[in-house]
Structure formats: structure tokens, C-alpha cells
Amino acid sequence: ALVWRSARDIFHRGAIVTPDDMRPMIEFAFDSMADHAVPPGLATATGRAEGKVMGQQAIAEQNVLNVWDGYLPGMGLWDTDLRTPTRLEDQPQVTLRLAIVRDGEVVPYADDPDVGRAWSLSEIRVAQRRITFCPPPDGLQAAIETARAQWGRWEREADTVLCAVLQPADGGWLLECRDGSGRHVTVGYKSIVGLSFSLVIY
């Protein structure tokens, strides 16, 4: 209904004059209590959408922390982000910490003097159905464990934070991984275009 009201106002105006039209357009679109704010054909979908929002608000209220209570036992859900989510997502995601091999060591893809910042700058989030597991390349298991030791505790313990070791290939990089169905997937990576899922081996 929000999109419908926005479209109705735009079509009625025929043109948008900024910034003069912005506030009245926003007020019109978000006025859900006005007459004919929800057309009959969208009533069911609007009810579902409003119910979803109310459910999300309830989840947020369960996870919210009162910072004024401080870090005291029983004064809030002071927990890791793994158990106290900070965002709602339609599908589970994993964080790839891209790494390369340099002089036999697994190091962050991004170059920064601060190793913690370098790992953070090397992160990419993808849907878990696309990438679930990144098997270590042959002979690099120990080097990967050494690299992971530089991470914070919650990052080491999280099964959704993966060390993804890139292998050089044709001016870019390749990553061998598994998708949510357990299939072997070869993913390309370039700094300009990001990840490419064009190569899938069943």
C-alpha cells in the first residue's frame, strides 16, 4: 500500500519539483489512516506486510539493550552478535574473509598495517546458499589456523565467518568452495567486479 500511495501521488502530480514537493509527497505516502489509503485489492497483502513488521519489532524489543544499566549480570542480553542479531535478513548469510598466500603465509587480501583492520577490509558477505564452506587448499591448513588466530574470539568461533583463500588466475583470483547443496563451486574474484559465480561444477 505504501508503494501504491507513492505511485498514486506521483501520477497525480505528473512531475516532481524538489525540494518543495518532497515533504507533502512523503506525508501523503505514509498516511496509512487516510481515506482510501489501502485499495481493496491490496488489503490482504498490506495486512501481511504490517504483521511482518510487527513481528520484526517484537524481535528487536527482545534483543534491545539498555545501555544505562551497564555491563551487569541480569541487566540485559549482553551477548555476541552470533546470538543477539543486530539485523534481520530474509536469508542466512556468511562472511568471507578473503585471504591470499604470501611467502607461505595466509594473509588478508586487503593491505593495511593494522592486521585486524586488514581482515575487516577483506570481508565480503554472501548468501549462505551460494557459499557454505571453503575447504582449505592442499598444504595450507596450518597456515590458515595461524591466520585465524589473529581474529577475535567470536569470529573464530562463528561458523558463518569463513577464511576464503584465493588462488591467482588470469589477472584475477579463484576460490574453491561448496554451496548449500554441497556442490563444488569455483568462484572468480576481481577487485573491480567482485565475486563471479559463473563456474559451477556439479
Report on the architecture of this protein.
- The chain is α+β, with helices and mostly antiparallel strands.
- Helix content is 30%, strand content 24%.
- It contains six helices and eight strands.
- The chain has helices at 2-13, 22-29, 43-63, 115-121, 141-148, 153-157, and strands at 93-102, 105-108, 123-127, 161-165, 167-169, 172-178, 184-190, 194-201.
- α1 packs antiparallel against α2 (22-29).
- The chain is elongated and about 70 Å long.
TL;DR?
The chain has helices spanning 2-13, 22-29, 43-63, 115-121, 141-148, 153-157; strands at 93-102, 105-108, 123-127, 161-165, 167-169, 172-178, 184-190, 194-201.
List its traits.
single chain; 202 residues; alpha+beta; 4-stranded mixed beta sheet; 4-stranded antiparallel beta sheet; 6 helices; 8 strands; 30% helix; 24% strand
Give the SSE layout.
Layout: H1 2-13, H2 22-29, H3 43-63, E1 93-102, E2 105-108, H4 115-121, E3 123-127, H5 141-148, H6 153-157, E4 161-165, E5 167-169, E6 172-178, E7 184-190, E8 194-201
Parallel strand pairs: 1-4
Antiparallel strand pairs: 1-2, 1-3, 5-6, 6-7, 7-8
Poorly predicted parts: none
Order of helices and strands: HHHEEHEHHEEEEE
Based on helices, strands and strand pairing, what is the structural class? alpha+beta
First-to-last CA distance: 43 Å
* Rounded mean pLDDT score: 84
Count of strand segments: 8
Apparent shape: elongated
- Structure annotation, total helices: 6
Rg, rounded, reads: 24 Å
